[in-house]
Amino acid sequence: MRGDEGGAEWIQPVVGRSRECAALADGLAEARSGRARCLVFRGPSGVGKSRLLSGIRQHESARGCTVLRASCSEVDFPSNFAVVRKLFAPLQLGADDVASPVVPVLFPALPPAIQPAVDYAVLSGLHSLAAKLMSTAPLVLVVDDAHWCDEASLRWLDFLLRRADDLPLLVVLGDRCDELEGTAQAARSGIVAQRASTVIELGPLTRTDVGEVVAEVFSERVDCGFVDACARTSGGNPGLLNRLLDDLVRAGVRPGSEGVAAVEEVGRDVLAASVLSRLAGQPERVRRVAAAMAVLGPAAGPETVAALAGATRWQVAEALGVLRRCDVVAASGADFVHDTVRTAVLDALPMSEADRLRAARILNDAGRPAVEVADHLLSLPELDQMWMAGVLRDAAALSERQGTPQTAVRYLRRVLDVEVSEPQRIRVRADLGRVLAQLDPYAALPILRELLNKVTDPDAYVSLVLSFSMTAVTAQRHPEAVRVLGEVLAMLSTKTGRDVSPAHHELCLSVESMLLIIGAGERSTFALVRDRIEERPRPAGSTPAERRMLAATSYVRSLRGEPSGQVVEQARAALSFQANDADPWTERCSLFALHLADVTDDLLPAARRSVEVVKNMGARSDYSYSLSCYARVLLHLGDVREAAAEAQTAAEICAQTSGAGSTAAQFTAWASALVEQGHVEQADEVLDRIDRAWFEESTLEWHYFLHTRARVRWIQGNPAAASDLLLRCGQSMTDVGIGNPVFVPWRTDAAYLLASLGRRSEAAELVERDGEAAQRWGTARAIGRHLMARGAIAEDAAHAVEWLTEAVEVLSGSPAWLEEARAQRRLGAALLLTGDVRGARKHLRRAVDLATLCGSRPIAESARALAVTAGGRMGQPLRSPVDLLTGSEHRVATMAASGASNREIAEALFVTLRTVETHLTNAYRKLRVSRRADLPTALGGSRTRLQQHEHEVEAVPLAGRR
């Protein structure tokens, strides 16, 4: 650790100031060459102006120069030539050394009330003195805190610069703010306006700069989260950072993840002390204006601030001038210099509950957005006025539309504190349950269940039932949802004939379609859904409810494995809606059917759009589930890397959501992608995180789980356990009535395993039944997998080659890249057995290329090993540091490289700030970089190599490649 007591020695002047140091070096070089320059370094208090200016004497380019430095103070402002005297004092001049008009300036013997004249003779005499100094060496005049410089000294500097074009002169000013009352402002403006002058704004230190400073202070490894907290708390202000680190060291805080909370706690005290020191001695009115601005926010105008502060408009304007000079308020006067300063003002100058209530009333009367008013109401312990309920409900509605349901929940809970009307309370609780379901379905379900017995209005009741049902699905209460929906549908169906209006018909379809979708998710209710679909005619698809019914139908029929052409037709009709008519359930069910049918045109954009729609709604659990569905689509189409990234993100979000332990979709999707990447042990661990007590009843996830676990056991070298799991999976699917051969391809996988275990007759029976299902479904993937299975159980290599050759031909024209890679590898292996080494190498190379591009390491490595056995020379596989990143690490690093902050990344991915920090730390280590700025190069270079490899794969004939 560097430094002993004071933190002032820790921060080096050059940290984060390379641009400013370069400007100083250029200015000194020009002065030495005989060209006058003026540099004005401008910035708020603590930004590092003084430290930068104090290092000029030690600058290498300043050797041989006469450097005169003066630091201004508030007492200098009214005294003519006070700063000139400070500048020339180190020279120890006598009265005989200067012209007579200058003597009263440098050697004042006059009473303090009598100021030296500011006339041409004085200014010219001082110019002559400076010119005499410049005749022997370049002259550097440094004036720090120039905003307190007296007018006479500024006028002389202006006079000097206007007559020093060809003189070796450099004037350096440290200036705190943009404006100052009185004639001094005109003098400073005159200096800045000269051609020789350059204004350099000193901004806050970047996060990387802060990290460098922190690393100088602590000799041990510094956690990324600790650096982020220091940067966030100090706002990048070096002075505040200096004091913060000083206090942290004194408190014995270590720079690990455990110290993050201490940074924020200590930082509040540092900021509060800084603000209090700046406001010390200021009138109470100034303090109240600062507090009013902090409470009301940046959108409040002067009238609003005046009303809360109990001041007039001109008093507010006067106070703002004081606050600007104290570097509490920005130069514009509309907001604080930094958000952390606003927080510090609130901590240092807390407002009473009465002031908070007045602030809410003032903002409400001024017509400000409901959210601004509601935020003040939330801080009050009691709400007892009816106008507050309306404000809070409006704020909740706005927050929900903006995708922040957690904020809407806070508002709605407080509405219940003030609302006394029972009908209104029921409506508010219904809204609360519906919004809360997006965050915590287990907490929302009791609220909605209780309301089912209280709502009497039919339309409101049906809306509540739909809300309850969707929440029940998220909370894994499918049977209860199906039961309630069935009861409501039976009640609605009592109207017949002329009593049925179009609106009533639409309502019935809406309830029935949800019943079908929810019922299809449970093994116990799947048969009920299947029978109901067979009995009803196909809807036209002209209304939202009809389109949802088509989506439900296509979803169920795709699981059953009915002809894909009919299923695709219904799914496409379901997706024919306008943008403002989008329904997540309709999209999710239709896209499921389309991706099983390998309909790739517009599939990925539509799937991504569906995810974004749910994401913008702000529902963490729904977004997590939709993201896992999207990952399965990517995996189905062979994009293993991206599928793993999306699925891992979905799982991380799920792990932070209430009740996540019983949600399987995110973890099965992630495990499936990990298996394809060859990370079988990690996939096994991910599968162990699922609560199997619930999801054995799931139509989708239970079978996904069994199939993925079987593949894990298969790769781990336990074919007997793997085959048992696959047969168990197949029996469950058969019992339910699921017959799609590509949804979970248990028959073909079991056939491989049974054949390897010597159980060929069982394998042949499974392959025969799979053939029937594949022909019925009719996609290239289904037929190609079936042909591969026939090759696996063939009694001799020649027959195996025939079947596998046909499989390659069928799959090569499909989007099933992974399946083609498997077929190419198996065909290559079969050709080796027949002695066709050249043909084997051709197909094995193709398998390696496809598997590499997809990101499937097991297929690529096994095909590469076989090719080497066949005598082929293979190049090195695509490998770069980027390949070492996990999916989430790659996603976070990519967003960070594009300029997103850690907090923006956390909000976009629905993960915690700590998770983002961990992923970034790991990415830095794996990519061998130490700064955020290096990420684009580290990530982009690898992407270029991958694209170049893809081009070579397409351009060079496979058979001729060695």
Automatic annotation (TrEMBL):
Ligase in keyword set: no
Species per Swiss-Prot/TrEMBL record: Saccharopolyspora aridisoli
SMART domains: HTH_LUXR
One Gene Ontology term from the biological process aspect of the record: regulation of DNA-templated transcription
Signal sequence, start to end: none
Pfam families xrefs: AAA_16, GerE
Superkingdom classification of source: Bacteria
GO molecular function, one term: adenylate cyclase activity
Region entry Disordered, spans: 939-962
InterPro entries membership: AAA_16, P-loop_NTPase, Sig_transdc_resp-reg_C-effctor, TPR-like_helical_dom_sf, Tscrpt_reg_LuxR_C, WH-like_DNA-bd_sf
Membrane-spanning parts: none
SUPFAM superfamilies on file: C-terminal effector domain of the bipartite response regulators, P-loop containing nucleoside triphosphate hydrolases, TPR-like
Any single GO CC term annotated in Swiss-Prot or TrEMBL for this entry: cytoplasm
Protein name in the entry: LuxR family transcriptional regulator
Domain HTH luxR-type, residue spans: 878-943
Keywords assigned: ATP-binding, Nucleotide-binding
